[in-house]
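QA checklist item 7 of 12: single-chain prediction sanity check.
[x] sequence parsed
[x] length recorded as 202
[x] structure emitted
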Amino acid sequence: MFKPLIDSYSAVLKKFKGNDIGATINEEVNIERLKTMYDGYDGDRVIEIRFIDPRRFTVQQRNFIYALIGDIFIDTGMPTDFWKEFFYFRFEGVTGREISLKDESNTTVSDANILANIILDFIFEHHIPFKEGYEILPANQEYYFYKCITKRVCCICGKTGADIDHFDKALGRRKRKEVDHSEYTFAALCRIHHTEKHKIGV
């Protein structure tokens, strides 16, 4: 497991105006350590700031994450406990923080969203088929649709080789090279769902 950063402290925000902030550090700062770090250095003392999400993760997030892990188990045959620890460790490698989805844990909504996106990334990279019957949570939908487009996977049924469709406006007779594609929302759809979309006029 990764150890907490030696120069990391928690603090409470007291003042916030524009780009200026004031905060009270909760722990005693190791001044001698800072003197050693900055000895002979004349530049700015740069720090990192991370705002802590006060919202605790939801049951819906846990169920969604476990459903994704279940899909990986079905495809690989490796036990779900193995995959849970695998993704917990990957989360820790990305964020430097431990995570748990137990009822008594302090995992936040933001942390659970990151974990879900890490698992989605693995699913797309390894072509794990999705099980139908659950919805992608709103916080993960943007990343899900992005991965569907980059991997050309139908966002409805998970079939590969999907078409990339403009969802807001039809291109009509305009040449694609002359269109400002930033005005459009895209989605990856297989031929069947692409056809269904046009039939209902979406």
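[x] summary fact logged: The chain is about 40% helix and 10% strand.
[ ] second reviewer sign-off
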